Amino acid sequence: MRVFTLTTPVRSTGDPTYTNFVDAEGKTAQLIGHINNINNAVDFLFPPHVLDDPTACLQRAFLSPRNIFVDEFNDIIEGSKAGTSRRT
What we know:
Blueprint: H1 16-28, H2 38-45, H3 48-51, H4 54-57, H5 67-82
Helix pairs in contact: 2-5
């Protein structure tokens, strides 16, 4: 089996300024700090007024070192849009 390593972020490959910002923020977490609860992350990144505006949603991103957390985050967002309650 051959393992490939991601060396260039696919999402931000066309925006090196953004990529550098994310890399620097990930190392220091001084701008936005740390959020230790996934529901707090949802509330911070996608409050109801943002979820109601697809263009505003495109300007936000959930960054996680593990895909399982991204899947959980996406499930919560999809539930929020569908009107179901968030996980606790």
